[in-house]
Specification:
The chain is α/β, with parallel strands linked by helices. The chain is built from 6 helices and 12 strands. The chain has a 6-stranded mixed β-sheet, with helices on one face. A 6-stranded mixed β-sheet has the order 5-6-7-8-10-9, covered by helices on one side.
Length: 260
């Protein structure tokens, strides 16, 4: 099985970069499933139902979000209605949506995706380790599920690494997101889990994390935060990973980073 995961989509530049290159990605990699992080797809903060539909109608398998999931209020009922989008698992269970989703491919293989938020330099959330342990009690890799992708949406690299090693051998992929800067530490961990600290951003890299540079410079130089962050609108680049999964064990055979 081959899985592709595209990192945080930021604004129009990121949306158009992914949507316009899906055919290229399919032709180049021939994936069985494509997942996309749409955390910042709507004006740089959150995502709307319409944007979600744009990706799903183009054949994206499933969507992952992050800590900005509540920014666009109209997404809230959509989280309950659509079974192809996940919000962070370690929010309180009574909130809308789910932190995991299961997908069955045409050949009968099943993929589980889940996301947790980190705790270091992030808002207060439930323990990501306890949340993922509770979920994985129902899933045995290579037995009742053929692949498991876990996104850790976090600031601190050390937290992401520790989480990757904690899940090594229990899931197929641990992929970091949130910092919008692609890392080059993609590799197979000792027990067969594919890992990367940050997949990278899908957006305009002539920017500060996908946003026009003026306001971030003001916040740096003047400590003035009264301005508005404006996402870039063109020249998007897609960053993602492609991971080959062993059909028998569900563990990773290879991980590669790509950008378009």
């Amino acid at each position: 099985m081959r899985i592709i995961y595209c990192g945080d989509v930021v604004g129009r530049a990121g949306r158009e970069a992914v949507l316009n290159n899906l055919d290229t990605i399919r032709q180049k990699f021939n994936p069985d499933a494509i997942f996309v992080n749409v955390e910042n797809a709507a004006h740089g903060f959150g995502v709307t139902p319409g944007i979600c539909r744009d990706f799903l109608e183009k054949g994206v398998t499933g969507l992952i979000t992050g800590n900005h999931i509540w920014q666009q209020r109209d997404i809230i009922p959509f989280l309950n209605d659509c079974k192809k989008i996940v919000r962070p698992l370690n929010y309180p269970e009574n909130l809308p949506g789910r932190g995991w989703a299961e997908f069955e491919l045409p050949n009968g293989q099943k993929i589980l995706i889940a996301q947790v938020l980190g705790r270091v330099f992030m808002e207060a959330v439930d323990c990501p380790v306890q949340a993922i342990d509770k979920l994985l009690k129902s899933y045995n890799l290579g037995k009742n599920v053929d692949a498991i992708l876990v996104d850790i949406h976090a600031e601190a690299t050390a937290e992401k690494l520790a989480f990757g090693y904690y899940l090594d051998g229990r899931v197929s992929i641990v992929a970091g997101t949130h910092t919008h800067v692609p890392t080059s530490d993609y590799r197979l961990l000792r027990h067969g889990t594919a890992y990367i600290s940050d997949v990278g951003m899908c957006g305009d890299y002539d920017s500060v994390l996908g946003f026009e540079v003026d306001e971030p410079i003001n916040r740096l130089a003047r400590r003035y935060t009264g301005g508005r962050l404006v996402p870039c609108k063109s020249n998007g680049t897609v960053y993602g990973i492609v991971v080959d999964i062993d059909d028998a064990s569900g563990l990773a055979l290879r991980i590669e980073q790509f950008h378009i």
